[in-house]
Amino acid sequence: MHKWSSIICTVFMLLLCVTGLPLIFHEEIDEVLHAQVKAEQVAPGTPRADLDKVMEAVRVALPETVPHFLIWDRDDPNVVMVSVGKSITDNPANNKLARVDAHTAAYLDAPDFTKRFTYIMLKLHTDMFAGLPGKLFLGFMGILFCIAIISGIVVYAPSMRKLPFGTYRRERRRVVRWLDVHNLAGILLVMWTLVVGFTGVINTWADLVIKYWQFDQLAAMTVQYKDRPLVANPASIEEAVKVARKAEPDMKPAFVAFPGSIFSSKSHYAVFLHGNTPLTSRLLKPALIDAETGVLTDSREMPWYVSTLLLSQPLHFGDYGGMPLKIIWAILDIITIVLLVTGLYLWLRRRKTSVSVERAVANPSALEPQAS
């Protein structure tokens, strides 16, 4: 199980580790490689601009587009982003992301993220430019990776029972030294690789999880409005957000889905709010606001399967603890690359020698030089 699960997934796990490394620092890389218009620096406590003025700025700058989402930038509180497409039915993955000053409502820019190095790395990492089939395929590779890790723990115990922990037999042949490196790297990283591997598998199911939520919870929240047409002249988005915040005073808005977008109905603003603690800031709660009357029609906690997805994302990318945690994640990622490369070497070496790696695991002296 350990051998074949590892062999099948190793190349793809190497791809994910290599592409995942720059993604850990994607914000810092984008800041160095790509210039963007800065929002005006204001004193703490400065009132934020009216959201209707924000939307008007985007309409003037990008007149041939339709807004899908209004997003508060998690990393820059001075910026609000608006995701816009050619029509409300367009795939949001193809949208432009307009940036607006959160305090002056001045339009900043709409950079083309698809040409960025980090975007290419992200697409390779998430779906290999193959959409949902690519995601599900990488999810299957992730399952094999988890099997390889668990079976590796079982293999490790008998193979090291006669050796002190962390042994590196530098006087032995190269294959034995690589086996020692592989065993040590594998057992040291077992918890981290399981966490990152399992959360990675969960993330590959994101599209399916969202679809199920739409047919399950969102459909239940909007069933009495399903026959309504798309709202032609929606009410104030500023007032809709105020209504949502009043209903959930201990939460902050994360993003707003416009009527007709994938996260809302044809007749509602869906205001998604998050908590203030490190944990609850990753969890979302939707509040549906009637886009014609501005009245709150429903608000409920996300189901467990969506919460699991939301919590898996920061665990996978290590972006919840600032730069120190990013550095730790990068170091662990590099060690995982070493683990995968040494495993691949041991398998290739086995094919070139009459002595199997399995014998080396059971009896390392089997790989010692024999008298000619």
UniProtKB/TrEMBL annotation:
The keyword Membrane applies. Keywords: Membrane, Transmembrane, Transmembrane helix. The keyword Membrane applies. The chain crosses the membrane at residues 7-25, 136-157, 178-202, 327-348. PANTHER family: BLL7967 PROTEIN, IRON-REGULATED INNER MEMBRANE PROTEIN-RELATED. This is Uncharacterized protein. It comes from Afipia carboxidovorans (strain ATCC 49405 / DSM 1227 / KCTC 32145 / OM5) (Oligotropha carboxidovorans).
